[in-house]
Amino acid sequence: MPATPELHSQPGAPPRVPDHDLLRLVGRGSYGEVWLARSVMGTYRAVKIVYRRTFETSHPFEREFAGIQKFEPISRSHEGMINVLHVGRSESGDAFYYVMELADDAQDMPAIDPATYSPKSIRSEIVRRGRLPLDECVRISLSLANALGHLHKRGLIHRDVKPSNIIFVNGLPKLADIGLVSELGESRSFVGTEGFIPPEGPGSAQADIYSLGKVFYEMSTGKDRLSFPELPAEWVELSHEQLELEFHEILLKACEGQADKRYKSAEELHADLALLQTGKSVRKLRAMEKRLALFTRAGIAAGVLMLIAIGGYLFAERQARIQRQNFLRVERAEREAREQLVNVYLAQARAERNSGQSGQRFNALAAIANASSLLEEMREPNGTLATNLAQKLGELRDEAAAALALTDIRALDPLPVAPNAQWHEYDIFAGFQSWCDKTGALLLRPLTGGDVITLTNNAKADDVLPLSADGKYLPAFYSDGSLRIWDVRARETVLTVRAPGLTILEFTPDSAHIAISRLNQRFIEFYSLPSGELFKTLPTRRFPRDFRFSPDGKSLAIWFLNTNFVEIIDVTTGESRQRLQHSGLITSANWHPSGQFLAAGDTDYKVSLWNPLSGELVRTLATHQAHVMDAVFHPNGQLLASTGWDGTTRLFEVATGRQLVTLLHSGLRLQFNRDGSRLMIDHLSLLPMPWCEVVESKALAVLKEPEPANRGRGPWSVRFSPDDRLIASASYDGVRIWDANTMVEVQRLGESEMFSTLFDPSGERIIATGDKGLLEWKLSPGGNGAVWKPVPTDFRKPWLRHADASADGSVLAFVGRTNVFVRQGTNRVRSFLGSEDLFYAAISRDGELVASVPLNRSDGFNAYVFKTATGQRVGKFPVWGRADVVFTPDKKWLVTGAAREFCFWNLETLKPGRRIPRVNTGTLHGPLAFSADGKLMALAITRTFVQLREYPSLKVLATLQTPDPQMISWLSFDHSGRRLAVANETHLIHIWDLRTVREELAKLRLDW
């Protein structure tokens, strides 16, 4: 129904247009009006209404209606003509109308604002910008000449070509206002606009060409058509070969007053424009034609000269025709070659993305960039792409998004060895290179450049070790058997101890202390810095092989010579907390930045990930084909790098343990720099040091919840807090709260199975439904910061399933096995009978409607819609299997997502509308979600891929594919529309940063 029914009850008001709301009058002409309208799907359209009262008799009115009927099927056969989508007559018969695609906004606004919208046309562009650049004029002219020729070939003429009747749709120029279109040779009244009508009058193909030529004149010179053929003053000074004068030569022929001297067809006009675009001279060809005419007027006396001229002209014309044909053949061959090259680059990108080898992301994006550049070169003069190429553009966009989800590593030029170095050390975390020279001096300099610092004393340095984390202290071994710790800034030693044979040491994370252990000593000494005071000796039962402090400095992970376990020791008490047992001998151990994990490598070719507090083995990474030498965490804690004797360095995803990429370099020690963008592979030699660039995916983050022993599935619901700082997920063992920036779990609520969770609008309460009923938690201050604490609820009916809330949180709807429950504000819960075995529930944003669907059903599946205020059922929709349901933001449709398709059900007519097929889904339901602003829709188009569509147009924007596709169970946008959460039934939650994706796609000219 129209949004403004009173409009149509007024005298002289426009007729009703089915499925369209007329919003505002945006244009008026001699024969009718143009309205801005909104379709039932929410898409903006233009509606032209032609009234009988504007004609003296009914005959021309009926003739115009017949003309639009003839044009309607032709309008969609060429991209240069406005698409007519529907033609109809008013109920009274005193008007007819036709619905068209809408022109772009004249102010280049990204979205249509009905209050300020005005159509973008060549006229509006001339008013806004003045005359248009010549290369843009040529492109527009080529497109319009092609469209006009297409119209003429179909036996129709336009009769009113002028700048205001040429609009832009998605940036492409199109012939519009086709209300005066008629058949060639048909008798019509004298119509058109002064200055665009040729002397012989309208109604012929050549008259249309004349009008189009005047359009070209106005947009290229900025002058009024009545000033033709006057040139802009600055053009007069140009050389004859300039593009402006060549283009003007075409205008002269197109706007020739004598029809027999004008272009005979739009194809001839297009040919000259194409010739001009290739750099050929139209003026020279025209001069030859004029000389031929001169010889003709000279009569018989100049017959010989005329024959020579004719022969010369025909030869020139033939040569030009051959040249054009050759050009077209070459152009066609080049185009086909480019299309094949696009396919090659696309295949290369896919192969690189799936290779798992270093450079996978870099190489895939480079191939995509090459393909994108080729497609840009292959655009038509009007900026469009052929249908098959537009499809390739979409494939490239999807491939680029998948590549942006990858983490990658690639080797850079090796770091050079300092001159005269006897031993050297690169410390990319502290940001220094240090070395000992032949004189025994200790030297260091910043990796970013700067002065060399020289540290000398009465002893000779022969080995240097990594600096403290803050870059303040530098350890070095000396030829006199001592270990000395230098204060680099003060350039003095703060600690000197005896260090015979093998000595190991480790700074505390705050650099305030250093721990030292010597060969054949079963204790560790702790010294304060910078005082150098020995303040503790910690006994050990074996000879330490090496050790690492936890990030808080309170624990020490120690492994011993020829042993297969790592021991976690309390630094304060010296007590052993955990023993982490391996099958092979321990080669390395390093802490996660948060302290929640410890990664240990061994001689059985694997890296084990441990929980150091519980002693639980989190997972084992199937890694190398030889001994693991080192395994370290990325500073963000989301990646792990390991290196081994098999000649490889590998990157893993900490959350899942999945191997991401392999690099064919290895060493004995790994080190990330502070921001994690570089990885050094130290092989402890005086050869150039390998180091690498690391690119972590900023487009995709991964949350991983622990998997249950029975391998149950989940999570089933994911929601963002109102400020988008937290994420709540409901799964088999309660509700988990995650930090949306660090992707770290901060709290788990409850212990029973949860099917749904959501935040209230204040962000201070969390509501969940599950096997224990309706549960709530409130944010409260705690000893270690804010925590969520349970609050009592008066509704503990067991086995409540999915829940949803209105936009303002005032209405909550959820389902039990057979009932739909509604809670409004602080009122008690009301219920009404739904169906058997209900599982999913959805509520409209205004809280007035609630929908439910069953999980299993012996007699068929249906989605039911009820009024929340009364429980009255207002609709029943077949869904053909288990399905998700969502109301569209405008409440016009209920969308069901089942195994076979997504279907839009009209909530007024209760009939199906648009259907979107799903593929390769088996019997899986179809999760879907809308962004908070209602402009974006996410659909699980397959079991594992997410498709983004624009709403309400439903235009496909992109398909998102993760590097490790899993079965999708839930989709949810954050409130800003920047991020999309994709929950998987394998206890993974993928978080897509759509803003980052679009920023990177824009760099590749692939943004949607």
In short:
The chain is α+β, with helices and mostly antiparallel strands and 1008 residues long. Helix content is 20%, strand content 35%. The strands form 17 sheets. Strands 1-2-3-5-4 form a five-stranded antiparallel β-sheet, covered by helices on one side. Strands 10-37-36-35 form a four-stranded antiparallel β-sheet.
SSE order and pairing:
Layout: E1 20-28, E2 32-39, E3 44-51, H1 58-75, E4 84-89, E5 95-101, H2 122-129, H3 134-153, E6 156-157, E7 166-169, E8 172-175, E9 182-183, H4 205-221, H5 233-236, H6 243-254, H7 266-277, H8 282-297, H9 303-353, H10 360-377, H11 387-404, E10 408-411, E11 421-427, E12 432-437, E13 442-446, E14 453-455, E15 461-464, E16 473-478, E17 482-487, E18 492-498, E19 503-507, E20 513-518, E21 523-528, E22 534-539, E23 544-549, E24 555-560, E25 565-570, E26 576-581, E27 586-591, E28 598-602, E29 606-610, E30 617-622, E31 628-633, E32 639-644, E33 649-653, E34 659-663, E35 669-672, E36 678-682, E37 691-695, E38 700-704, E39 717-720, E40 726-731, E41 734-739, E42 745-749, E43 754-759, E44 765-770, E45 773-780, E46 787-791, E47 803-805, E48 811-815, E49 819-824, E50 830-833, E51 838-843, E52 849-854, E53 862-867, E54 873-878, E55 884-887, E56 893-897, E57 901-906, E58 912-917, E59 928-930, E60 936-940, E61 946-950, E62 956-960, E63 968-973, E64 979-984, E65 988-993, H12 994-1003
Antiparallel strand pairs: 1-2, 2-3, 3-5, 4-5, 6-9, 7-8, 10-37, 11-12, 12-13, 13-14, 15-16, 16-17, 17-18, 19-20, 20-21, 21-22, 23-24, 24-25, 25-26, 27-28, 28-29, 29-30, 31-32, 32-33, 33-34, 35-36, 36-37, 38-65, 39-40, 40-41, 41-42, 43-44, 44-45, 45-46, 47-48, 48-49, 49-50, 51-52, 52-53, 53-54, ...
Helix pairs in contact: 3-4, 3-7, 4-6, 6-7, 8-9, 9-10, 9-11, 10-11
